[in-house]
Specification:
heterodimer, A: alpha/beta, five-stranded mixed β-sheet, B: mainly alpha, 13 helices
Chain lengths: 435, 306
């Protein structure tokens, strides 16, 4: 261990000697964890003399901006923290540097990282030992709730009288909807409040990510586990239909008015302004919410997306990749090596980043290290990801349109929406030569 | 008496006037060819291939007219075209009627008309991105001013209807915003038309004891018609390719209700990276606009000639 540390320090010192005047640009989305990474990266600069620059893009434009950059073989980014869905396209189009040899040479063990994050953020093809990223930011969809409202005796009594159970974090999707219904339109402290802030955004990926949190627990699967790309009976199974109907009913009964095109920011706004009892959002935002002076601290509670027929949460998160067109690949790889070390991963978690390193996650004290840490571990154990195919954007556009058509625009039935989705996806896979 | 200057060519040895004219025009012509004609030819060429900009190393295959056939036989594309036509028709109608009416009012020189003209022009000076965000807030059912104004006049609860989230109301929501933003532009063109009518025509009409209505129908409207038609042409072309404001307001939703052709095109080209397919779609849209605009310009020229 000591030898490895000394060797690592020597290597970083050698890099430092060579790195005078060098700088790296890291590209990511503009959100709370990115600010934590800026703070963390100061240590890298101190050790190596490699200055760090950052290119952060707001989430709604993140994919457009970064995929344009990669497709045009741009040299803006030396390092990129890219979405999990991009891994297939970025690997097949050689936008990312393959990291297997580098990992082997530097002694970086991919097994040190949580399996779901390795599969989700690093592997292409999936479930093969081909690594194009280092798991960097573990994330999943979870829920927050107004703990202070839940603990009010009069509300507890009323809820118990109505549903014959305690007013607490829900244990099933059905319970979740009941809680949302209970709070919808209620007057709390002289203010009208609403049930749940969920995702309904049409333009990028919002409603697809949101509806997944209902579809997976009800039994939706992207494909036949035994026959890849065979979707009939899985995407449009009876259970999947029930899941989609459930999401629509949740949207209709229990969201704040004007909530027809809402994603992460709108959810945060609704919750922070004291409008919503429940909020669906990414775990990445939970540290910031916990610190919020109005709704954080004792007022906020967290829970994992509840099951119905089975468990399931939408995977978020990203891996750290070296861009193949970067003229500073050696320095970029030294950043990956530095970032992979256990000490850095510990600090990453302390600063508000969600580490994927087992050395941090399996620490006995981890679950109690933050109010949402235990839930994060549970959520990451039940995550499911969207297609990570090179044509993921077409697959995403199709689902965005079909789900929004049904849930928000009230077009057709849930079964029709899912049948049409299979048709769209089949067309894409045929064009890609998967059949 | 004007001094007679010798032709320039006599002063620049070895060059004719025509050659000098070409020397001046050539840089502009080359620039126009580079930024207009070359991309157009390239787009036409790409539209017959399976090219994807995100897969530059994939084998390029000629697919003939496949993309054109797929697009023209796709009922969803026709829905997008229908949504676009609906948007273009209503925005042009409203902007022309309101724009002309405002120009007619502003043309009567009343006290403070300069101030009111400036005030009316403000919306068109704003960026569509600002307008999109601004109206998103105005349409917000809980805090939006628009819903409160409607509520004041109708008695409906402000949060009982969603301008951007309702399939029936959302197309009208974007029509209202576009009309608010671009009516001043139509007004300016109409104002130019009104100011170009010589006073003596009205004076002659007064002598003939023509009523105000008669003067409006027989003088004002016919003489302004070429200007109005010009405004319709400009707004028609602009609104056919409208993207930014609609994308900010509704992202094409709810469902696909306000997904205009330009939004579909952008998604196919720069999100799904179906470059060949989107090139074909762009060519179809170009031919449609170019064809309609040409027919319209011929009609405009006939009106001007009268």
């Amino acid at each position: 261990m000591l030898a490895a540390t000394i060797a690592g320090s020597a290597a970083l010192a050698a890099t430092a000697a060579q790195a005078q005047g060098k700088s790296l640009t890291l590209c990511w989305a503009a959100w709370d964890p990115a600010n934590a990474l800026v703070e963390l990266s100061k240590d890298f600069t101190a050790k190596t003399n490699i200055a760090m620059k950052f290119e952060f893009v707001p989430w709604p434009n993140f994919a457009d901006r970064m995929l344009n950059e990669l497709n045009s073989k741009g040299k803006l980014c030396d390092l990129i923290i890219g979405d999990s869905q991009w891994i297939g396209g970025s690997a097949e189009n050689k936008h990312y540097v393959k990291l297997n040899d580098f990992f082997a040479k530097e002694g970086i063990k991919i097994d040190d990282f949580m399996p779901a994050t390795v599969t989700g953020y690093a592997e292409w093809p999936k479930n093969t030992p081909n690594y194009w990223a280092l798991p960097a930011m573990g994330d999943a969809l979870g829920w927050t709730y107004r703990k202070d409202w839940f603990s009010r005796p009069e509300l507890q009594a009323e809820f118990k009288a109505k549903y014959n159970r305690e007013l607490a974090a829900p244990k099933s999707q059905t319970e979740l909807k009941q809680i949302a219904e209970f709070f919808q339109g209620r007057d709390i402290d002289g203010k009208k409040v609403y049930g749940a802030a969920i995702f309904t955004e049409r333009g990028s990926e919002g409603i697809t990510m949101g509806v997944a949190n209902a579809l997976y627990p009800f039994g939706f699967k992207y494909e036949d586990p035994k026959k890849p790309y065979a979707m009939a009976g899985f995407v449009n199974s009876d259970d999947a239909v029930k899941g989609l109907e459930f999401y629509k009913s949740l949207y209709k009964c229990c969201t704040p008015p004007g909530y027809s095109n809402a994603y992460m920011q709108e959810g945060l706004d609704a919750f922070k302004s004291g409008q919503a009892a429940l909020q669906m959002n990414w775990f990445a935002f939970f540290p910031g919410l916990y610190k919020d002076p109005n709704v954080g601290g004792d007022r906020i509670g967290f829970f994992v997306n509840p099951p119905e027929k089975q468990k399931g949460s939408q995977l978020g998160g990203q891996g750290l990749s070296v861009v193949a067109y970067s003229p500073n690949q050696a320095e970029a790889l030294s950043y990956v090596k530095w970032f992979a070390s256990l000490d850095v991963q510990k600090k990453w978690w302390e600063l508000g980043g969600y580490t994927c390193h087992k050395g941090v996650l399996n620490d006995p004290g981890f679950a109690k290290s933050a109010p949402f840490a235990a839930d994060f571990l549970v959520a990451m154990g039940q995550v499911v990801d969207f297609w990570a195919e090179p044509s993921y954007a077409q697959l995403m556009q199709a689902e965005q349109a079909r789900i929004h058509d049904y849930v928000v625009a009230e077009k057709g039935t849930a079964k029709q929406a899912l049948d049409l989705l299979i048709q769209d996806w089949t067309k894409v896979f045929k064009e890609d030569g998967k059949f | 008496m004007r001094a007679a200057y010798p032709p320039i060519a006599q002063r620049v040895r070895g060059l004719s006037d025509k050659a000098i004219a070409w020397i001046f025009i050539a840089p502009t012509m080359i620039l126009l060819l580079a930024i207009n004609l070359f991309p157009l030819i390239w787009t036409i060429q790409l539209s017959f291939t399976n090219y994807r900009a995100n897969r530059p190393n994939a084998p390029l295959r000629n697919v003939g007219l496949d993309h054109y056939q797929t697009i023209l036989s796709d009922p969803e594309i026709w829905q997008r075209m229908q949504a676009t036509a609906h948007f273009v028709f209503w925005t042009i109608l409203l902007q022309t009627v309101i724009g002309f009416a405002l120009a007619y009012l502003i043309d009567r020189k009343f006290r403070g008309h300069g101030f009111w003209t400036t005030l009316i022009l403000i919306p068109m000076m704003l960026s569509p991105a600002v307008v999109g965000n601004f109206w998103t807030f105005l349409y917000q059912p809980q805090i939006g001013l628009f819903n409160y104004v409607v509520s004041f006049f109708t008695g409906l609860a402000p949060s009982s209807f969603q301008m951007l989230g309702d399939v029936t109301l959302s197309p009208w929501a974007i029509i209202i915003v576009d009309t608010w933003m671009w009516t001043p532009y139509v007004m300016l063109i109409c104002l130019a038309g009104l100011r170009s009518i010589p006073d003596y025509i009205y004076e002659a009409a007064e002598v003939d004891r023509a009523s105000n209505w008669r003067q409006f129908i027989s003088i004002t409207l016919p003489m302004c018609l070429p200007f109005i038609m010009l405004a319709v042409l400009f707004r028609g072309i602009e609104n056919f390719k409208m993207f930014d404001m609609v994308n900010l307001l509704t992202s094409g939703g709810p469902g696909s209700t306000t997904e205009l052709a330009s939004i579909t095109l952008k998604r196919a080209a720069f999100e799904a990276w179906r470059t060949g397919y989107s090139s074909a779609f762009a060519i179809i849209l170009f031919v449609a606009v170019f064809g309609l605009a040409n027919i319209y310009v011929k009609a405009l020229n006939k009106v001007k000639a009268r």
